[in-house]
Amino acid sequence: MNHPSKPHSPDKIMEGPASHGTTLLREFDSLSGGQILERILHGKNPRKVVEEFPAGDFFWLIKKIGSDDSLALLELATPEQWQYILDMDIWDRDEINTGEALQWLRRRFETDSRKTVAWLLEEGSALAFFIFQKSLEVMAREEDDNEKEIPEGFFTHEGVIYLRAVETEFEPFLRELTGAIAAASMPAFHSLMSSLAGVIPSELQDGMSRMRNVRLAEYGFLPFDEAVSIYSPLSLEQINLAGKPAAIVDITADEEARALIPFLPLHEGPQGSFLQEALRAVKDPLIQDRMRLEFAGLANQIASVEGLARMELADLVRTTRKAAGYLNIALEEMTARDPGRAGTLLQSNTLTSLFRAGFGLTLRVKRVAETWLRMAWFRRSGFADDFWGDERGSLLSGLILKKPLLYTGLKEGELYRDFAGADDLTRASRALMGLIAMDGLMDALTKEIPIGPECSERDDLTCFHLLLTFWARRRLGLEPGFAAIEPGEARAFFAILREGETAPPYRMARFRDVFIEDMLGIASKLPDDLRAALREELSNIWEEFRAEYEEVPPADTDMKHNPFLMIG
Length: 568
What we know:
By secondary structure, the protein is mostly helical. The chain has helices at residues 10-13, 20-26, 33-41, 46-52, 55-65, 71-74, 79-89, 98-111, 113-121, 125-135, 171-184, 186-195, 201-217, 224-227, 255-258, 264-268, 274-279, 285-306, 313-335, 339-348, 351-373, 377-380, 389-399, 422-448, 453-456, 463-476, 487-497, 512-522, 528-549, and strands at 91-92, 95-96, 136-140, 155-156, 161-165, 406-407, 416-417. It is 58% helix and 4% strand. The strands form three sheets. It has a three-stranded antiparallel beta sheet. The chain has a two-stranded antiparallel sheet with strand order 1-2. Helix 21 (351-373) packs parallel to helix 24 and helix 23 (389-399) packs across helix 24. The longest helix is centred in the last third of the chain and has 27 residues, at 422-448. The chain is elongated.
């Protein structure tokens, strides 16, 4: 998760007097987990530094350092920080993961066994009952029942209650933990263990889940039916412009409370984006804090909608980048990339409203695609999205998803990603207009010359096969149509295109405009905007065709399996 250094990161722009902990968070990406740990522990007052971290930021620090490598920090953690970690990391959606819960209890026990036992017997008693009921078998032997045989694997701390771990890997820790509880209070130990048989795990879990949801809602992790409201689009007309009353979340001026506002989400999200520039225009410290708080809540709402079970560092980056992406789109579209005007919009609106406006702009492109698809020639002809080739077809498939995604073709390490700004939206819109124009061309072309079954039944058929084969037949003086050309005809076709060129790379430059004008002539009835889009798309197709064949020797231009020509 290392990012290239930027001249202005958002936290540098919104910078005030920095504590040692804040300084470390500003270097979150450039420092390793081990370096962060070392700097905290070798500072003047490690406990004070740890206690000043907001619970969310502390959670991400532990994720970066590594859970088992962070015991020295966990020893200094506040009850609120511990509760946040448990709320985030021991649940699989609405169910407790017993193994994860035991691992975190082990870490907590290793940092402070006495406090852990006291917590399990008091605030954490519901979790204690649930975990022990799931992970221990319990049997009792009366003091005068010495003949009762105890099965192998059971252990006891006082000769009456015998315990056995359900999973042997947790037996050493469970033996140590239950022993510590017995040593702290034998009556509490007896009460706890003797009551396990009457515990109904589902009821305990439901109660803990309700309390967890209340706690996490304060950080923006809302129930799905509430969190999904961030994807209710707003029009740009619904956004407050300069001079209109601002919808401001009240942020206290109390320094202690402000210190608990999350730092890392807004640090991670806007890196390298227009939002980063817009934040420079925000000078009021209270509004800066409001943005940090709102942005963290926005990213957490996104995580709630996606139903993330347990979040890792990659999820922090992804959710904050998604939040920043839709904010970028709204700000760029409304201000023509003017950072000053964008800063005013940030101060006059909640980030949730701007996010919804950005998402609404993305949905406009999706709706254009859906409207076209209801009448598109290629759909009426029975073709799927891949008729337009892998890249164009995949881009179309991404646009019509419930939440549209941009196809990148693994260029950025993944097939699809969220829209990051207005440039992405423009790119997708232009590509879509190119497809609509190409569909109009194919419609006009096939009205004169129907596609025969020998073509339409090909499994790998694309628009390129039809278009280039038709044009090759025209250049060769063959009967107009889409029937495959013979190998000799393919070689003759490339000889025409390469006339005057004796060695690779073969540019075929003279025929670029010929191809484009020939196809435009067929689509003469398209509206001007679609003709312009068609010209651009035909130019792109020609460049792809040229690149495919520029190094191919003349003798090999008759290859039957290729992405552009049907050769029999």
